[in-house]
Design goal:
The structure is a homodimer.
Chain A (H helix, E strand, L loop, with lengths): L1 H7 L2 H9 L4 H4 L10 H14 L1 H9 L15 H4 L5 H21 L10 E4 L3 E4 H25 L17
Antiparallel strand pairs in A: 1-2
Helix pairs in contact in A: 1-8, 2-7, 4-5, 4-7, 5-8
């Protein structure tokens, strides 16, 4: 659990340092088409922390007989983020994540708990261990994505170097 | 220039927040084979800031007639990082980058300067503008890479979710 929490608790700070105060050219643009900007991704992370990860973990550990997870809405941020600045979203994510870390610690998850299971709408039976590992990889995935989306804003500006920069392909 | 410096100056802080104090399982492991760990990447970034980006920019802006860049050693970190802790490398990167930002600002680069050129060992003639844009994309590329390398440490742990996590493929 220690190795999981040490990642989860730093994600909001990493994102604040990476994004807060940047010119909107870096944070409002996406990779083209239906892809997401950094701004969109922060809204998605907030929605996950509000409705998904910890809620599912608590369901697995609860006395409920019914362990079926609610499907996750991957597009909720387009409604929820409306009218908010990026700074507001970054602060909101920090707040909900900090609260979730406190809740997560208070669950005092044991090795035995990690093997307990819930039912995922697509995959069927999954363990608490798999859920928590996925939460972390999901964070890292979106940090990686945000850096890539930002890099792509300079796709033309780098000129011939594009050949050495796999991230732009 | 403003949009470039605002990225360059925050990279060391983002990396300190992402990596400092983490368990070595996250920072010393790579993606397998000859790939790089987070630790290796920080050494690579230090070497670039010591010998490459700003040195090339200064050469372009200098009165030298000979504008040929020195080739960059992409493996120097395996020698230079020896015996150093990750914390030492992160601090060293912060120090050299902060110094480079001061030097970069002191160059007072104009729009006209951005069109000045140097000679890259592979690409031939490149502009100062392309060089500086590449410096930024290079930072973002390695932030993205580090998040990916860390994510891959949980490739098995996520179980069936691997299907939804493109970063693990």
């Amino acid at each position: 659990m220690h190795q999981s929490i040490e990642i989860l608790e730093r994600t909001p700070i990493v994102l604040q340092n990476l994004l807060e105060g940047l010119s909107p050219e870096w944070t409002s643009n996406n990779e083209g088409g239906e892809t997401w900007s950094a701004y969109d991704v922060i809204g998605h992370l907030i929605h996950g922390d509000k409705t998904d990860w910890l809620t599912r973990a608590e369901l697995i550990l609860s006395y409920n007989v019914e362990k079926k997870f609610q499907p996750f809405d991957r597009f909720a941020q387009f409604e929820n983020s409306k009218g908010k600045t990026l700074k507001q979203l970054l602060d909101e994510f920090k707040e909900i994540r900090d609260a979730n870390i406190i809740r997560l610690r208070s669950l005092k998850i044991t090795e035995q708990d990690l093997e307990k299971t819930g039912v995922h709408p697509t995959f069927g039976v999954v363990t608490l261990s798999q859920l928590l590992s996925t939460w972390i990889v999901h964070d890292l995935n979106h940090i990686s994505q945000i850096a890539r989306v930002m890099a792509k804003q300079y796709k033309i500006e780098v000129g011939p170097w594009i050949e050495f920069l796999k991230i732009l392909k």
